Amino acid sequence: MGRATDGATGWPIGWRGAFGDVRLPYEVFVFVRRGEEYLILHRSPKQGAYWHCVAGGVDEGESYAAAAARELREETGLDAALVDLRRPYDYVVDESELHSAPAGELIHVECFLTDAPDGWEPSLDWEHDEYRWCRPDEAAALLYWPEPREVLQELVTAEPGSAGRSRRRPVT
C-alpha cells in the first residue's frame, strides 16, 4: 500500500509539516511552559502519532510571530504573549516521511516560547489526542524530532545573561 499523496501535485501529504495543502517552506515551533514544566502534545494518528509541541506552517503573507500565535490558539486554545527565541533551525524533508513538501525540500523553522497561566490546561484540536506537562528532561525524551529536543535543551540550560538568553526577544 502506497503513501497518501496530494492529487494536484503528487507530493506526499502528512505530518511533519501541514496536513493537506502544499504550504510554504516556513514553519513555527512553540514551547509552552508552565512553571518548570513544558507542554508536550501527542499528534493524532492522522498526524503521525508522535510527541511534539505546538507547530505549524506559516501562511503566505503571515509573519512567523503571527503564525506562532495562530497555531498556539488553534492547537491549544491559549492566547498568550510569545517570546521569539531567536533560535531557528532548518530540516530537509526526507523521502521516508509523509509531508506536504517534496523530499529534499529545505524547511526553515522559527522557535517561540510562551508561559501558560497556573492551572491552565489546553483544549486540543483534531491534530492532537493527548498531552502531558513534563519536566525538561522528560519532555526532551518524548520529543520525536531531534531539532526541537536540541532547542529545548539549549533553552533550559541557558543561564540569565548568557548568549542563549540574550537572543530572546518579546513579540509584540
Tell me briefly what this model is.
With 172 residues, this protein is α+β, with helices and mostly antiparallel strands. It has helices at 64-76, 136-142, 146-157, 163-166; strands spanning 26-34, 37-43, 51-52, 54-57, 83-84, 89-92, 106-115, 128-134, 169-170.
List keywords for this structure.
172 residues, disordered N terminus, Nucleoside Triphosphate Pyrophosphohydrolase, nine-stranded mixed sheet
Question: Can you offer a commentary on this structure?
Answer:
- The chain is an alpha+beta fold.
- It has one domain: Nucleoside Triphosphate Pyrophosphohydrolase, CATH 3.90.79.10.
- 21% of the residues lie in helices and 27% in strands.
- Strands 1, 2, 3, 4, 5, 6, 7, 8 and 9 form a 9-stranded mixed sheet that branches.
- Helix 2 packs antiparallel against helix 3 (146-157).
- Mean pLDDT is 82; it is low at 1-20 and 161-167.
Distance between the termini: 47 Å
CATH class bucket = Alpha Beta
Helices and strands, in order, run as: EEEEHEEEEHHHE
Q: Which fold name fills CATH's third level, the topology?
A: Nucleoside Triphosphate Pyrophosphohydrolase
- Mean pLDDT over the residues: 82
The CATH superfamily is Nucleoside Triphosphate Pyrophosphohydrolase
